[in-house]
Amino acid sequence: MEHRISAKELRVIAEGIRLVTLQTLEGFGAGHIGGSMSIVETLAVLYGSELRCDPANPAWEDRDRLVLSKGHAGPALYATLSLKGFFPKEMLSELNKGGGRLPSHCDRNKTPGVDMTTGSLGQGISVAIGMALGNRMNRSDSLTYLIMGDGECNEGQVWEGAMFAAHHKLDNLIAFVDYNKQQLDGFTKDVLDMGDIGAKFRSFGWFVQEVNGHDVAAILNAVTAAKANKGSPSMIILDTVKGYGTFAAGIEGNHHMSLTKEQMAECIKAASERLEEARAAFAAERAEQAAKNPAPKAPAPKPADNPALQPLEVTDDKAEEKEEPAPDDAPAEGSDA
Amino acid sequence: MAMFKVMDKLEKSPVMMRDAYCTALMDLASENDNIVALDADLVSSSGMKPFFNAYPERAINVGIAEANMVGIAAGLSAVGKIPFVHSFGCFATRKTCDQVMISAAYAKLNVKILGSDPGVTAAYNGGTHMPFEDIGVMRSIPQIKIIEMTDPTMVSDIVRQVAEDYGVHYLRMPRKNVTGIYEPGSTFEIGKGNILRDGDDVTVIAGGIMVAEALRAAARLKDEGISVRVVDMFTVKPVDTDLIARCAKETRAIVTAENHNIYGGLGSAVAEALAKTVPAPVEMVGINDSFGQVGTEDWLRKEYNLTEGEICDAVRRVLQRKKRKFLWFTIDN
Prior knowledge:
heterodimer, A: 337 residues, alpha/beta, Rossmann fold, five-stranded parallel β-sheet, two-stranded antiparallel ribbon, globular, B: 333 residues, 2 domains, seven-stranded mixed β-sheet, five-stranded mixed β-sheet, 14 strands, 40% helix, 21% strand
């Protein structure tokens, strides 16, 4: 499948989000590391490529919206929004601070770029449905994305919403379940076995895809297919590992953890290495393309009217210069809607 | 500014509450594309069929899923819609408390909730369907506005105001006929109580179906030489603290009358306001912490003492307390 962004670039974005999320959690010393790490790749695909938004105008009416129903994964979203340019990186130090703009669970009234207040599990699906329905009434082509947890699917409201979205053929709703197989008290199969979540949504009438939730190319393909799907809401089940990419991966009790200085240092070192690896792979891909195609290419199509095409800028002292123009120069023009 | 006139005679209003509500919403919808109506499989009961027929694209029957309905309404309002949701008062509040709290109120979205058939007006639907607690459930949610609509004239005016007032509103009303209190064309101010009848000895602060009872009680007590002021406190939250304090100063005795548990409803709201301003003896007419049961509305009114006679008794009790117990509360005015 042809995409406007390469998987290697998305991996750079994902590892950048992972690193910045960990740095954010390091600042506070504790947090929802498990569920934040498992959705990093999905956030990279959405904010790196697929979700239409404008960091200069977070309230842009024609934007796509994300309801992060598993609101406890806020730190990963905050890192993403900061990298995308919704707010400066320094603001990440406000995580969980009294009076700060980054509460442990997402709040649309506090954080630029957060589209919905979440944290009471099960509620996000209904709100996302309302947004999708309202966009359809408004004849708007804006999409609504929804990320739920697998444990969250214990909530009855999720299935009220599942029925409703299928009945109303909400094909402008693209949902994910972060199937990381763990919830606060343990493994989902032990606490309340959800069985085959994909089959459940399928039987409710959703277009369901199941992908490796840490494979950005797979997620990107699934979102592309979901956008093309008509007549039913889309569900992408993300097969993930809670705490992915850190020492916390898959271990018990990783929902919310207090982190020692040593653990954090180890996490951040590992994440920095992963980011470097991803950057090297991306640079190699660029070099290979340049070798194949030495003629001076017209600048990569970067329509100014679509801020979603702006790649996230992973700022890091060690960052290599990216060949793309800085993300600051385009969004404004697309934002006057 | 409220511009209301009280009817000369207390009679059943010819218009059902639900018809006034549907008409008001249809009028609004004809002017504003953003008005949306949602119901949870009670369209036939709520009287909203004409709206659903006239505006099928803006009318959503979510099925029997009240929590989902409130969440959907929150999402609709996030993209500019003005959703009005309905269920019976018990389900519109108890089943949706967390959704109203988080998805609507805490998220600062714009959701209007109608809970119908409050208290004994649920009649034959019985105890499971008889909301004596809905105001209490909603009242602890920050910044929400709660209005108990008294008659069809008020419904017409309040629905329009609520549509224009961004935020979460909980509206409460019986579906069918009630006693008409206000002349057609009357207008109301949310957050301000209406003095329907002046008096010096005691103030009866009433809401909903108890307003008519309070007026009847006042007329009867006049023959005994007791001068009763009657206030329609249709906004339970934010309650009109200034007016309550003024009534306490001027009449020095208060009776509340509500079709709701005395805990958490109008009586509580009035007592809280008095405690913070001008303490005065209060007698509360309402449900004494009981569950509902099945019966005709008239039988239930008697069973739960929601009557003119009970208000008269409460007035006599409060006047005794005013004489005896509160002498040491020298009111400084």
